[in-house]
Write a sequence for this structure.
């Protein structure tokens, strides 16, 4: 990640929403909740990353579509992984 999740949250706190929305970190977050477990303030950073992704998706920006996956990935990846990917990266 070019910016750690807590830095993205700091941008939001400082009113720099547009800059936070441009971060690759919101798309790379695996939503594993490790950062939430370690946060001394008890913030659920993965939910914040999800909210930022949803903002982009509601604006019509898709991160990945069916045409972006190779035939090899489609034939070898578990179906659950593909569905999960679309839930996270597309409308």
């Amino acid at each position: 990640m070019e910016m750690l999740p807590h830095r993205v949250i700091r941008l939001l706190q400082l009113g720099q929403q547009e800059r936070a929305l441009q971060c690759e970190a919101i798309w790379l977050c695996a939503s594993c909740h490790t950062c939430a477990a370690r946060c001394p303030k008890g913030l659920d950073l993965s939910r914040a990353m999800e909210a930022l992704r949803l903002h982009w998706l509601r604006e019509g920006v898709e991160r990945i579509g069916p045409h972006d996956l190779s035939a090899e990935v489609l034939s070898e990846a578990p179906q659950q992984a593909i569905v999960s990917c679309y839930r996270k990266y597309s409308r």
User: Anything to note?
Assistant: The mean pLDDT is 81. Residues 45-58 form the longest helix (14 residues). Helices lie at 5-13, 17-21, 25-28, 34-38, 45-58, 71-76, 79-89.
